[in-house]
Amino acid sequence: VGKTLRHACNYAAGPATVAERLGVTLSQARALLDRYYEKNHLLKSWHMRIQQQLRQNRTLINLFGRRHRFLGRWGDALFREAYAYIPQSSVGDLLNISAESFYRAHGNEFDVCIQLHDAIYVAAEPERVDRCIRLMREHMIREIPVNNETMIIDVDFKVGEYWGDMEELDIDWRQ
Questions:
Q1: CA 110 vs CA 19, 68, 81, 157: distances in Å
Q2: Which of 41, 97, 155, 171 has the fewest CB atoms within 10 Å around its CB?
């Protein structure tokens, strides 16, 4: 429920959408939305800032400086697309930068196969998987400037013989 509600609120979904996705009544969905926005009061102001930026020139800039101009019809659908742009495109850019950096440094040692949405697939011999994971993490963990602060987006890893049959690794990075 939490993940579905969080995604719905991040993209300003209404009570009807939340009710349908969670299988609850409309009044229950309204109560969930109210409670979520009460606990995450800055989210609505962030939505308003995005709309203000769109009013200026319909252009948003992601955390890596990539610009996107929104040409769609003015309204909720355009706003939801805009709310998604900065976080989603920034993660995509981070993955591309990380994959290129990893490939340039270790492409002769590991096969970088593909980047799909929010994942990089790399082929490694079983005895080299631990080294591959350590090196990938070194290339992927970066400080990203956000307003006057920095943040780090952590990464997780899955390993398997086939892409469709991978298991998530539980790694304690503090060791």
A1: 46, 34, 36, 16
A2: 41
